[in-house]
Amino acid sequence: MVILREEDGKTFFRSDAAIELARALGGWWRLLLPIALIPRFIRDMGYKWIANNRYWISKRADFCILPDPEMEERILE
What is the reported pTM? Predict the structure, then answer.
């Protein structure tokens, strides 16, 4: 993940980008901000692990399910 902050043109990568996104979203996402106290190389290892396992974590498939014939009739071309 890469974030470019428009105010000052600063660029954030990996876990720094996730922290900056939490800061920008506000609300309960701000509860994640103390993660910034963890050294960057450790945060980035966690970020890479989550990125590589995101389908397993979210229980989503990494493929598309083909529609059955009834559903296929409802799809507009």
Answer: 0.64
